[in-house]
Design goal:
The protein is α+β, with helices and mostly antiparallel strands. Helix content is 37%, strand content 16%. The protein contains 18 helices and 18 strands. The protein has an eight-stranded mixed β-barrel with strand order 4-5-6-15-13-12-7-16. It has a four-stranded antiparallel β-sheet with strand order 8-11-9-10, with no helix packed on it. Strands 1-2 form a two-stranded antiparallel ribbon. The protein starts with 6 loop residues before the first helix and ends with a helix.
């Protein structure tokens, strides 16, 4: 007679099934992120789950019931490193515009200490306290303080439910890394947050001066290390630990220095200087607030930065690609808004803006180059059912004078301003992402040349990411619409400070949006 699985094996099997159900319930989270059986097998025995079951209630009960009361924070019958990581996040949460006291870090430290001996009641109490704190912290950290236009109601921010917060955390490949890296926030937010924490006044004490002396590096101790920790806003101590090394590297990167985590003469001089001043700190904080609007990296989405003319796309918990773009001029700005990319149009027409018909096309027609020879055609009106009309039926002198405004569209082809494809997220401003034949513009440092739409450096690559395979038209027929299998959010943003390989890149406020936004934040 075959022997059945052991009790621990059955528990692991039940856990894997529960986590698979949770993964299906969370769009954008891959099943590969569920807890592996070998990881689950190293977790605490069922006594911890029973202790949690006997204590949990209220808003957390449904979450824990759905996972068999398996803990998030307890590893091998003791508080896991994720518990301390959460307290460390709370200690620095002033950077996020929140008060540490709201989340009781001292109480959590005491509960962690009390649970170190493996007392089941203390472990369960700590587990519930940490989960409740994480739910509150994520809810507050994701609360926006700046405005953006949402084209679809489903994208508008709502208060995050505790179940959703904890379920997402439970699916992380590494819970300690998820907490340390603020996995519930967008990577752009996390990187800007690090820069703000490392800047003067951004989480540290700019009045603290670190005296000169030997190199300060991991493993060092003493009074200078203690002052360095104060200067960079870390908890009191005199040890050059990994947290301090990470903070030093972040500071160095934000100043364009080699990020080696070692404090030499140049790093020390930058730390003791006040050269950045409050303006740069305020600018970092403003852009941090803009980044707060973005979803986490587990949600498939696209971000366009109209200020730096750059695009990123995210999924499966990480950035999955980036490219340069061309965005609107100061006169024809790319707006801040969020929509859903729902379909692609292959072999697209381009409806030429009326002012461009007047400035560029009409003079050529009057000079003897027909509309058709220029690669355009005229239509009867602006409706969906408009008919092609003879171009000689139009008063082109009236067009040049601005008294006649015909509808003109560019025909598909190699020179079409839309290139081979455009990605559509329905809106009333006629804004979309599209290919372009003008590849030379992507080599320019300032790429504000469009009429508001976003021109893509590598439209085929974005198409492969959206559709999972190369986009190819069925024929030469114009305007072939292909629905995106799963519509993807796109956020048109504006970052005058954004992460880069050298730390933080500051760009010109070409749309003059920063000053009004700073005044708005200051008035809150």
């Amino acid at each position: 007679m075959p022997v059945g699985p052991s009790a621990p094996a059955r528990r692991v099997g039940r856990l894997a099934s529960l986590m698979l159900i949770a993964a299906v319930a969370l769009p954008g989270v891959a099943v590969a992120q569920t807890v592996a059986p070998e990881a689950a097998a190293s977790q605490p025995d069922n006594a911890v789950a029973q202790a949690i079951r006997s204590q949990v209630g209220g808003r957390l009960k449904d979450f824990y019931r759905s996972r068999g009361y398996w803990p998030l924070w307890i590893v091998d019958n003791a508080p896991g490193p994720q518990a301390v990581a959460l307290v460390d996040v709370i200690d620095m949460i002033e950077v996020d515009g929140l008060r540490p006291s709201r989340y009781s870090p001292d109480r959590l430290r005491r509960l962690i200490d009390e649970a170190q001996d493996g007392n089941l009641r203390a472990l369960a109490y700590l587990e519930i306290a940490l989960s409740s704190t994480l739910a509150d912290l994520v809810r507050d950290m994701r609360q926006p303080n700046v405005e953006i236009r949402y084209l679809e109601e489903s994208l508008a921010p709502t208060k995050v439910k505790p179940d959703d917060v904890l379920r997402r955390a439970g699916l992380a490949k590494s819970m300690p890394d998820y907490v340390r890296n603020l996995g519930w926030m967008n990577p752009l937010y996390v990187q800007l947050r690090e820069a703000l924490a490392a800047s003067e006044g951004g989480g540290g004490d700019p009045g603290v001066l670190v005296p000169g002396g030997p190199l300060l590096k991991p493993g060092a101790t003493g009074e200078r290390v203690m002052l360095l920790r104060q200067r960079l806003g870390l908890p009191d101590g005199d040890s050059y630990d990994p947290a301090l090394a990470a903070r030093v590297r972040s500071f160095q990167a934000s100043r364009g220095m080699p990020a080696d985590g070692i404090v030499g003469a140049k790093t020390l001089a930058a730390l003791n200087a006040l050269e950045s001043g409050p303006d740069r700190t305020a600018l970092l904080r403003l852009n941090l607030e803009r980044a707060r609007l973005l979803p986490d990296a587990y949600t498939r989405h696209i971000v366009v930065d109209a200020a730096a003319a750059r695009l990123w796309y995210y999924g499966a918990g990480a950035e999955q690609g980036t490219m340069r773009v061309v965005t609107g001029t100061p006169e024809t700005q790319t707006p801040m808004m969020a929509g859903m990319v729902r379909y692609a149009t292959l072999n697209p027409y381009w409806n030429v803006p009326v002012d461009l018909v007047r400035k560029r096309i009409a003079p050529k027609v009057l000079a003897g180059t027909s509309l058709e020879r220029q690669g355009y055609e005229a239509l009867s009106d602006w409706t969906h059912d408009a008919q092609v009309i003879p171009s000689n039926s139009i008063d082109w002198q009236g067009v040049a004078d601005g008294t006649v405004e015909p509808r003109v569209r560019e025909l598909p082809g190699r020179g079409n301003s839309m290139g081979s494809v455009k990605f559509m997220f329905p809106n009333d401003l006629g804004i979309y992402l599209h290919d372009t034949p003008q590849k030379n513009l992507f080599a320019k440092p300032d790429r504000h040349f469009s009429n508001g739409c976003v021109r893509l450096e590598d439209a085929p690559r974005l198409g492969r990411w959206l559709f999972g395979s190369p986009l190819k038209p069925d024929s030469s027929k114009p305007e072939q619409h292909v629905p995106v299998p799963e519509p993807v959010p796109v956020y048109l943003m504006y970052f005058t400070a954004s992460p880069s390989e050298g730390g933080v890149k500051y760009v010109a406020d070409v749309y003059n949006r920063d000053e009004p936004a700073l005044q708005h934040l200051a008035s809150r």
